[in-house]
Design goal:
This is HEAT repeat-containing protein 6. By secondary structure, the chain is mostly helical. Helix content is 59%, strand content 2%.
Amino acid sequence: MAAQEGMSAPAPGHRVFPAFPPVALSAEAAPFTPMAGDGWRPDSSPEAEKQFSRCAAKLRALRADSGQLREELNLLFDQLLSENYNKTVDPSINIQPEDVCSLLRHVSSLVPLTQEHLVIKLCQLVHRLLNQLKVIMDQQTLDVLVTYTASALKVCSTWTHSDVLLALSTAVYGNGAQCHRHLGDLLGEDGVLLQYSSLSQPNMELRRVALTCMTNICLRCFKSCCQAPGLSVDWPAVLYPAPLPQYEGLSAAKPAEPPKSSEPPKDTANKKKKSKGKGKKTKTEESRGDDGEEEDRETVPALQRGGVREGETSTKISASFLYPSWKRNSSDSEFSDPEGNAQSKLRLNHARVRQGALHCLLAVVKAVERRTLYGYWSSFIPDSPVGGPPPLTLLTIVLKDPSPKVRLCALQVLCAMLDGSRQFLAMAEDTASPRTSYTPFSFTLATAVRELHRSLSLALLAETSPQTLTQVIKCLAYLVANAPYHRLRPGLLTQLWKHIRPYVRHRDVNVRVSVMTFYGALVTTQAPLPEVQLLLRQPDDSGSSSTPQDSGLSWRQRDGMSSPSRTPSQRSSCTQSPRVPRTPQEGDGGQMWLLQLCVSLVTQPREDQSDSEGAGGGTALEPSPVRLEALQVLSHLVRGYFSLTKVYLCEIGQVSARCLGESDPSLQLHGAKLLEEFGTGIIQQYRAENNVPETSRVPLKQVVQFWSEVLSGPLNGALQNEQHPTLQASACDTLSSILPQAFAQLPDKTQMMCITVLLGLTYIENYLVKTAAVRALGIYVLFPCLREDVMFVADTANTVLAALDDRSTNVRAKAAWSLGNLTDTLIVNMENIGVDFQEEFSDMLLLKMLQAATRAAADKDRVKSNAVRALGNLLHFLRESQMTRSAFQRPLEDAVRALVKTVQSEATMKVRWNACYALGNAFRNPALPLGKYSAPWSHDAFAALCHVVTSCKNFKVRIKSAAALAVPAHRGCYGDTKRFSCVWQSLATALENSEDTNDFLEYRYSASLRHTLSHALLHLLSVSQLQDMTALRESLDGEEGSSIREHLIKCLRAEEGPVHLMVASRCGSKPTPTTWTSTGPHGGLQTGPTSSATPRLVGLRTLPSLGSAGLLSVGV
């Protein structure tokens, strides 16, 4: 057969081929064809035919025993592969197919399988010639090429197989019927193609090419190819009708017979009566029952089964357009029993085909990258309301497919597409006024989100299959969790809020669980969202809640529910489950209906049990999944809308206590997490940076009472429950969420209990418990009422040091974090209490902390980031008397060198900027030897910071290093003139290059970097001495220093009022104050009153500044 070109992907290692125009996907489209091995080159040589003739003649003259066979073949193959034989480039090319076949047969006999490079070139030549020349091979050539390539797959190395499979794919394209003698080797039980296309094949490229090869073999002869290896093939003559009748409109409907369609209740009764009289099911009915099609029939509304009733309005007729014609207008009396069975079987097969296709699409959606998937978004999700002849999208299937299983599969695909789509949907926006000239992509995407809301709301109202209804609600939850409602016009969530409420009472437990999942997504998306705040504040209106439901009843009703005035609450009594007892009503005095609902689902029994899980008695609670989801919704409410939930302090405490007293560990766990969320919300209110007015906070007295009741309740049992470590860990997190001000007012025995329990749990072997306990101690050590207790600080330090040696990385990471907090406490106590606390704190314990932090600085980045923070605090905390002791000198040097190494390392940027900050923190210690007679490590510290401030790609690291270089308070800390000049020059160079970066994301920090660098340079000017002026003048002089001068003057102008920076120049032993100003008639570097002991400023150089702010002068 002729090998057509244009569709298969290139083999690995080949150059990129040009893209071909897209081809419409239809039954009449051209079959799959391997693409040409070479791209289209407009400058292809017209001598291609002559080159082929010359090379073919030379190849025919070669024999297997030729002396230079390998070299000749290699050269001739390269010449043939260098030409383009595509007739679209040069229509005059006229190479005869028999010449190509003769050449390929002869060359195949010359290239041994041991010469793998020649085998590769031969396969490429086969692909090139057959594809571009569209050669129709004879049987002999086909047998030779298939045999050769199949042998190469068995003999040659794996790296050659991609090209070999590509050549085989080209050779067998459309020639499956002529390959019958080879099908056993290719497609048999041990066939090479089955091996390469197997799921166990790790090389995806080989698997893809093998599948392409199998596709080309099966073209036009699939049945014969399957029968040749011994496979039995049997399927209906008509597998899938075209066009798709299940999605057609009224024009494709078969007219129903008026006498039979006018009395659907009678037909229904006859059906039931007939089914009772049958002794056993037919074979067709059994297969339908196994696959769930009997359920399909039961879930199809009567309007679909009986056609349009006489006298119904045109509105109902247009609504029935949404359903397939064979479902609307067919009845049992239209077919004889054999015909009916055949039709049912055909419909069942059709549904299975659609279901399988959707399963395949689901696998594709999960496998491809998100960027690729979003390119096909509009093919599956419409961006305008479905009207007229509907396009075939996922929403079309969800709304109109007669099979619940098919609808379920379509919803699963839609969920997979929506899951993780937040970044893509974040571009949607329709709050601005619409443009008339063009439609921006953001508006199109917003329209697609609104269409998703509309279609899924219709599906929610219409769906009667519990399994599919569950998936509809889950799909809505995915949509709500990912859509950017703060960029969309309000109202979408309000409609969903009204539509979803009746399903809280659904008879199926999975539906109720999915409803609570939806509510959880609703209160977490972009919380706090103004529209959701309004929904939570105002009580629901039962009338408005049922209005959209009633509108849906006109086109999807069940038998016995023909009255459109029946509300969902009334309908639930016959089609769903009875109402949940004591469910809070909409008019309950402004209470949060959702919160009250969750509380009732967790704590109150169901009076009328219709589920199997509640069949034991009238006091049975909701099933555990419903209660767990309700607790999660409560946690989400507290986290996102604490200002609304804070008034329910007592209710939430009672719910948590109730859950902690349950026997189910899952309920206990969620109860503890709810307490933690509420405690965290209170802490956030009391933080000064959040600026929450005192009148809006939960009163401290109530907080103390709340925690007193919690700590005297069942939380202690959870802390001691060694059978469930996860519960113990969550209880530790709950203890860590106590407000510090409230902890100080708890009874002493309660405080001691919390501390003792946490210290004891750090010795539990389970890493989850140990991690949570160490973290809680790291929080407690910051409490004002505990941080001044030297004994508690020492006990916490010993516990944290032991955890730093744990084998679990998680434990070590939290221990390093807690050690960083503990050292923060040391600094606070040193500043507030003074030397007394430093002297009271054990020197040996401080030495152990310094050594442990140094070791942790060489751990993984998760540990290292906080270990270097602790090192900076410890170096700041050390006293001079300690640093002069021999026991501290070596650990001190190791600690500084660990910081220097971390600054210069290739660790994560967070670790590096923490190390820079730690060095700056250490420089704050006036006892640290940094001056002229400093230790060698001080030079390394300054050198590392100077290197990072000029060369690091991350601007935040540069900012921290520049800030660290500006920490030393005295000129002597910078060492000699050479080191001072190096620091100055590094900062000046960094300021000049503060906008040079290849990463666009770093530009947002460029202004902050320039500000920090300018302040650092001004600080150096303020501490500079006379001997430093030469280096400063060289840096600020001329055009090269103009940008630095501009930045410095701009920084000075930003200060409030005149700025005077004192520069002390020492001559002998008497310092002379020198003022550097930016204002005044003689702004610049000026000296005080001259005297015989003060040298005159010679060579005063005045440099122009900006505007009328004065002069920036440097005197030397």
